[in-house]
Every structure is written in structure tokens, then in C-alpha cells.
Amino acid sequence: MITCYDVINTLVRTEKGSRLEPQRKYLFRVAPKANKTEIKKAVEEIYKVKVQGVNTFIMRGKLKRVRQEEGRTASWKKAVVTLKEGQKIEVT
What we know:
By secondary structure, the chain is of the alpha+beta class.
């Protein structure tokens, strides 16, 4: 049984994420296998808000280099969650 805490990993706090907050949009790092309906239900259950829409995309890992060795950071899935009018997530 997958829980809402398995779907939502963390709320992403970046400059871009902070600029989206006045538009009622929040960035989340989510499980790679999670779909939009699972993400919507998880956010509504955890934060007790109403979700208007969810957009998801895969953040591909970046190429990194340490001396002669080339590597890649891990890929991850990002979700942009738009809340309904009057809704807000309290971020501390």
C-alpha cells in the first residue's frame, strides 16, 4: 500500500519556487512512478488544501566531472501544484 508520504518527497524551496507562490503554485519533489491524480490526493491530504491542477516533468540528471571521471547526478520528478483560489500552504 502506497501512502501519501511515499508520493510526496519534499516541498522544493528555491528562488523559482518562491516566485511562484503568489500565483498559488508550489514545487514538489515526488516519487518517479507517481501520477498526477496520486500527487493531487497526496497534497490535499497532507496540507489540507484544494488542488486545481498538477503539472509534472522529469528533471534529468546533470553531467558532473571529478578529475578524469565523468558521472551524472540522479534524475528526479518535479510537480508544480496549482491551488484553488483562496488556498495557501503555510511554509515555515
